[in-house]
Design a protein that fits this description.
The chain is built from 7 helices and 16 strands. It is of the alpha+beta class and 323 residues long. Strands 11-16-12-13-14-15 form a 6-stranded antiparallel sheet. A 5-stranded antiparallel sheet has the order 9-8-7-4-10. The longest helix has 11 residues.
Length: 323
């Protein structure tokens, strides 16, 4: 948000504070093309545009490319990372860890490894194109076939991943989780939940009782390609268990309220699979806020054009990274 490494958090408890930075918008995987639009006065920060957001990034993390570099990088043959935190090596030495969903130009490969293009920054701030390698089982040709089995396999790679507001410390929040999950399939979702709610055919659930919402999701929802949206949160519908919808999502907490009215929280802070009633076993859940189903406002069918006049606009929602 600002050209500074200083942090701002609403929390003082270290375990909670370490998951939030209000100045952080997102993290970008290595190899992300950016367009520089502004340089800070101390030249330590660059305002950059990506395919999905605008923000400040450390100048030391960015390298300037030539037309020849761009031509080699945009070779039309790409791989996508399908195993989270995949080591990318040059001559056997690990250079960085690539998150699931990262994309690189493919240079070749064999049964054990895939040869890819990576950018390395020289002392002059310019990029050179080097050849790196990743384990063959950690990468796939992009786009990966968009099947329920493939989406479920990649979701399994992300389950248990820790929550990080705005990609803080390389972790994910709810919308980063869904964005990275679908990137290998060539489905480029926006960065936050309110925009992702408009990334497919939107079906409103407003005005329905909780029972009718659940019934409609179970009847019309397509497992592994239907997003569920409530202001501030985005989830993936994956099917039903004993007639109840199950969701894949990364979320922070279940709110509680004591007998004296004091608010509390049970920290989840990771990617999990739950029902639409996480924490339903808790006697002190803070209803209605703690129940996802009660606030659910719509379904989003990925791969289908959005023609709904009821689709939310950014003015109607809040940022998904609010705790």
């Amino acid at each position: 948000m600002l050209p500074t490494a200083e942090r701002h958090s609403n929390y003082s408890t270290p375990g909670i504070r370490n998951s939030f930075d209000n100045f952080q918008q997102s993290s970008l995987p290595a190899g992300t093309p950016v367009f520089i639009t502004l340089i800070s006065r101390d030249k330590k920060w660059l305002l950059v545009e990506t395919d999905h957001l605008i923000g400040w990034a450390p100048a030391a993390d960015i390298a300037v490319v030539t037309a020849d570099f761009i031509k080699s990088w945009e070779n039309g043959n790409y791989i996508t990372i399908v195993r989270d935190k995949t080591p990318v090596s040059v001559h056997g030495k690990i250079q960085f860890l690539a998150p699931l969903g990262a994309v690189f130009p493919k240079f070749g490969g064999n049964g054990e490894s895939m040869r890819i293009g990576i950018a390395q920054r020289g002392a002059d701030g310019k990029a050179s194109l080097s050849e790196g390698s990743v384990p063959a089982e950690a990468a796939a040709a992009k786009p990966l076939p968009f099947t329920a089995r493939n989406v479920a396999r990649l979701a399994g790679e992300l389950v248990g991943g820790k929550y990080g507001w705005g990609g803080f410390q390389g972790k994910r929040d709810c919308s980063a989780t869904t964005k990275d999950l679908f990137a290998p399939f060539g489905i480029l979702l926006p960065r936050n939940s309110i925009d992702q709610a408009g990334a497919g055919r939107f079906v409103s659930l407003l005005g329905l009782s909780p029972e009718k919402k659940e019934a409609m999701i179970a009847k019309q929802g397509v497992p592994w390609r239907t997003l569920l949206w409530t202001p501030g949160h985005i989830m993936l519908y994956i099917g039903t268990h004993r007639g109840k919808p199950l969701i894949f999502h990364n979320f922070w907490k279940v709110g509680t309220r004591g007998a004296n009215g004091a608010k509390g929280r049970i920290i989840v802070g990771k990617t999990v699979i739950t029902t639409l009633h996480p924490g339903s076993e808790l006697p002190d859940r803070d209803l209605p806020d703690a129940d996802i189903l009660l606030g659910l406002q719509g379904m989003v069918f990925l791969g289908e054009k959005n023609q709904s006049a009821q689709a939310p606009s950014p003015a109607e929602g809040i940022d998904d990274r609010k705790p």
